[in-house]
Amino acid sequence: MDASSYCAGSGTGGDRSRPEPAADPGPDASPRAECVLCREPTEYPESVKGITLCPVCEWQEAQRTACSG
Ligand SMILES: [Zn+2]
Known about the structure:
The protein is α+β, with helices and mostly antiparallel strands. The protein has a domain at 29-69. The protein contains 2 helices and 2 strands, in the order αββα. The protein has a two-stranded antiparallel sheet. The longest helix is centred in the last third of the chain and has 13 residues, at 55-67. The protein is elongated, with a radius of gyration of 22 Å. 7% of the residues are buried. The chain binds zinc ion (ZN).
């Protein structure tokens, strides 16, 4: 096996090129709301009203709520 011949195989016609998802403006294109606790970007868009929590703080809040009472 020769590594250099493997990398230089542009003319073999048998290599698969992975398509780059650059043309698709995914959910990351929209600005995210900040977490009200740690100011980390949340999974929610900026247009969401009210308190937005990042996954970490959201989980902690859920734990706190579950333990209360
Ligand atoms: Zn947070």
